[in-house]
Amino acid sequence: MSFSIYIYGFAIALFIFYCGNLLLHIFGITYGKIKLHKKPCLLPRESPLPSVSILKPLMGVDPNLSPNLETFFTMQYPSYELLFCIEDKEDPAVAVVNNLIDKYPKVDAHLYLGGSKVGVNPKINNLNAGYVNAKHELIMISDSGIRMKEDTLLDMVQHMKDGIALVHQLPFTCDREGFAATFEKIYFGTYQARMYLTADLLGAVCHTGMSSLIRRDVLEEIGGLQSFGCYLAEDFFLAKSISDAGWKSAISSQPAWQNSGICDITSFQLRLTRWAKLRVAMVPHLIILEPLSECMVLGCLASWAVNVLFQWDALPFYLVHILVWFLSDWIMLSVVQNGPLPFNKFNFVVGWLFREFTGPYLFACALFNPAIRWRERTFKLHWGGIAYETKSRIKS
Q1: Which of 92, 148, 260, 360 is the most exposed place for a label (fewest CB within 10 A)?
Q2: Cα 149 from chain centroid (whole Å)
Q3: Are 194 and 170 contacting, i.e. CB atoms less than 8 angstroms apart?
Q4: pLDDT at residue 281 in the model
């Protein structure tokens, strides 16, 4: 009898967890529909818009680097400066930046070479010179692969209201050709968007640092950019420190349009695995929760639970579960895209199934090989997220 009670208790817990995950779909779709793709206000203001220092860390070139960077020179915003940071003076990105500076002489743009050693995080080391020389009250950190619309910066600044110190963008991708591009768009427009939007709705810390706007005085209060050089996931800890200091964060109406010129399945899966390793080190309870939130795994567990609790047939329930999850993800992706998708429904089915089946596998790879390979360097993490570099070259 006591064993049966444990079985029923476990089944009830799984069913409640399952219902909670279904609510995440509803929250994500609804909040995305309300929040995203709103036009910034163009009405006159009582006070001038604050000036922005935009930090761009660069390393290497790809076919889209120049057009991506050029979108920062053509933004419709009254006062901003561009601070390009490149660690290696021989990097071919130097020539790309200099050509754009020559092409747009009226834009306040500067190039900083060499970086500085303030921690183990290569991005922070690269950015530090630009940060020290930034002269405006708002700091924007924007990765090299981001493509801006003319009004994106205006939209982000308008979300920087009283009590808010961090405005960030939902990660998404530009329309590109090939299955790898389809896979990336599906990942960022379904799983990532659902978690990101729901976290913002519930006030949880969920921030990717590929495109974010920060109040400089608040950043200085929490130690400055250099104080996050001991972490690889500096974006998470920066957002957490801002929250701990009593400030709020907000998502911009416009997604962050990633437009890297190099797009392949292997590189993206290594990127996903690296992110999973960081999440596990920062939030250890995700070791259990994250794989249980995957469609295929959760469906199996929920099918067993409803069979125990309600005597429903497990197989039909599992198939209906997959269909509902699939349709919810299609709607979520359509909300984030806000326009026609660059692939047909068959390609979506293939890409969606590929993501759902490979997700648990990549998470397992992250657990069993915790070393993190970032470009040509290898790192390991202590529990809590503090990183240290290793000399060996371990494949992640």
Answers
A1: 92
A2: 18
A3: no
A4: 83
